[in-house]
Amino acid sequence: MSEAHDGRSTLQAAALTAAAMLAFAANSLLCRLALQxxxxxxxxxxxxxxxxxxxxxxxxxxxxxxxxxxxxxxxxLPAVMLFAYVAFFSFAYLSLSAGTGALILFGAVQLTxxxxxxxxxxxxxxxAWLGFVLAAGGLVYLVSPGIAAPPLLGAVLMAIAGVxxxxxxxxxxGVADPLAATGRNFMRAVPLAMxxxxxxxxxxxxxxxxxxxxxxxxxxxxxxxxxxWYAALARLSAMQAxxxxxxxxxxxxxxGVLLLSEAITPRLAAxxxxxxxxxxxxxxxxxxxxxx
Length: 292
Hints:
Elements: H1 2-36, H2 42-63, H3 77-92, H4 98-119, H5 126-143, H6 152-171, H7 178-199, H8 208-233, H9 238-244, H10 247-260, H11 266-291
């Protein structure tokens, strides 16, 4: 009976994790698809994504069995970082392919979090340092000038989005109820997104398809995606959770090939090996150190 229960638990963890990774990769695909066909402007996409995500998360938190714990003081920094991530992410995908954007985003997120660890006194061994340098070098190589380089402005905007998401993730460590906290941060980010939309009102252009893709990104792949991810996290170790996220840029790249007719260039392939391989080295070394 215990073995059957363990088998079901493992299967549930795998299914939840796979669904969450597909949702996170789909965010890149939905944004790129909406902007590629001119169905919506990036400011409107970001605003609709945040509003629909906030509504979805509020409903989930409201009707779940576990009541949210009482909160202390209001912390606006995570909301500002969430808004910055969504805004820069949206504008970056005006020019980046889905796979390239996801790789730059993921690389910047991980390097921000690893850099914060170093800054707080965390020690890296030689293998971890090799991985860190390899990942950073892969990111520099990806965006360095050349005929196959992604547009510089888009790359910079996506790197900023990655740093913002890294800071957001660091700020959210240890919160009592991450799902409720995420819902509150989405809600607080909405006025900031509305202000951005007002600033770009003259360039606003929203059709039904673009709005539907933005709602799908906010309500499904962001809102419900986080619900599924937090359910998966309860069944994963920290190392497993960190490692499985290496799949997101690859899923986005292959999704871009299948759904958006994008190409995987030799530069993107080489940078993917360097960035994801380097981060995997750091994670494996940290896991070994934690077991000692």
